[in-house]
User: Fold these one by one.
Assistant:
Number 1:
Amino acid sequence: MANPKDDMWRRLIRPDIQRLKAYHVPASAGLIKLDAMENPYPWPEELKAAWLQRLGTVGINRYPDPQATALKERLRVALGVPTGAELLLGNGSDELIQILLMALAKPGAVVLAPVPTFVMYEMIATFVGMKFVGVPLTGEFALDRDAMLKGISAHEPAVIFLAYPNNPTGNLFDANDIAAIIEAAPGLVVVDEAYHAFAQASFMDRLGTRDNLLVMRTLSKQGLAGLRLGLLAGNAAGLAELDKVRLPYNINSLTQASADFALAHADAFDAQCARLRAERESLYRALSALPGIHVWPSRANFLLFRTHTRPAGDVYAGLKGAGVLIKNLDPSGGALKGCLRVTVGAPEENRAFLAALEKLL
Ligand SMILES: *Cc1c(COP(=O)(O)O)cnc(C)c1O
């Protein structure tokens, strides 16, 4: 670089950070947005009006409640957190992963996860200087129990992340495999239930049986992605340590009030998620019927599929040209070569996606 200032930045920034690529969010203006597992349904008008009224009562000149006491109580009841388990709230579950790994990042400490999985586990491990070990899933994206147990004894990870269901594959891992991993792990196991609303399977009721188990949830995928609210449930003494790393006002007042309001009207969101689960099954059947497409069954609000007759990159670009944005996983390589991921949208969005896709095949 000619500019001496650039040399200064190169000298200062950690080499592992310089090697990273920034998390890329593509522009989506004017497109049917089926790339990020968002809930497509707006709030009913009368609910929106009541919510805005509630926000009007928030004293925005004051700092938020640093412990979000009222919201935590609401979450406990709404999510069925067992008594004895404690809660830690994050600005999205992404922040909880960051808080956890900052606290665990001793020199040489390892983060382990099956791969392919949610990319933030590895990204944040790198941010905090931890080593990430990925253990390949089987051909059908199940946990390879033997390989996981071997990886655990070889690397003694400080934490293992298991997305349940997994992103981007959509499947729910076998609960007995997970139990065996929790049993064998010398460190923590985070069961990441970001898609709980669509899978309706959980390890929440096993908290308390094993002190190394943490259950993570988020309100994002069920319809509140803009709020940024995630939570970690688990051992009280352990979470008290993690809480020292949390910035005091990480959950802002508008999020606290909005989440509390939304949980008090959970039936509206539950109904939307039920519609999306039904839509997922229709979309799965329609994709299965298309020639040259292999689609995997999903317990989340998205479907992973592979295109056999045309390169995935061409299909992705063709869909975008037709006004539909999905996620191209082909560049991730490995088991995801040739794969695309589509979020389950509203019926008319799914129809537009299917029509555009059919034309491209
Ligand atoms: C989307 C996603 C998250 C992140 O959710 P936020 O709460 O919005 O940060 C966490 N885990 C998995 C597996 C996800 O797919």
Number 2:
Amino acid sequence: MVDIDFSRIETEQLTLPLFTEKKIQADVLRLDKMHPEISGNKWFKLRYYLEEARQQEKTNIVTFGGAWSNHLLATAAACQLYGFSCTGIVRGERPSTPSPVISRIEDLGMELVFIPRNEYRAGQVPGKQAGPRNYIIAEGGYGEAGAKGAATISDYIQDHHYSFICCAAGTGTMAAGLGRTGNVIAISVLRNNLELEEKIRKLGVDKLSVIHDYHFGGYAKYTDELTRFMNNIYQQTSIPTDFVYTAKLFYAVNDLATKNHFDLGTRLLLIHSGGLIGNLSQNKGTLIF
Ligand SMILES: *Cc1c(COP(=O)(O)O)cnc(C)c1O
């Protein structure tokens, strides 16, 4: 069992010539370093749900996700750490060869229930799994407690003068939390997820812009250009990114800077929200890290 090490969270400057040339500063908050599996934003989103489960004397955490879900993995690892049993309701049939993420989730002790795509409803617990011991967390940890937890990411932001906090957004829970303390730019990693903005605003945020132009074809989709970019960033800064979330964030910020989207003197903080385990689905040799 690997403990969470908050002391490893650090802020690094993203030293790319482009930013110097455009006279903007970009820092990265390395939440990916705190734990290999409860990585990045996931512990923050889970913390108040788990606290409430404990207060309500629930013993089993139930939540939802896909076959490569960072949220399921983080929940499984957190439940092992904090002494809950847990059930993951997975969208889609059990694959004949489980993804490395699925195998790891099961090793961590999460019971997995696979539901065919056409029957899967996020939030719906199948009859056999329903019960009074269950505490249910929405897919991706979306909700008020998730946003409240994500807002505590700001405890690790030492400098409060950033013009914008930039993050990748799936459910938008992290963006909603960050938006409670700063101006947020959220890069949507899903294609045409036009409800995202409203979902984030519902969690009580107004200083927000959502950008939909950097999904690279949709959730967990990528192009050669994106993987080349990931290798480039790694070569120049030694920062590894994941192709589902953080690479799209870094790419977006880089591209927006190229297109003079930011004023001179703009100070950006990019949230490295983890997710590196997802890169295991890439063909060997595609990434240099
Ligand atoms: C889950 C995840 C996100 C998205 O967080 P939301 O709160 O759902 O928007 C971003 N980055 C990484 C690495 C993630 O695993």
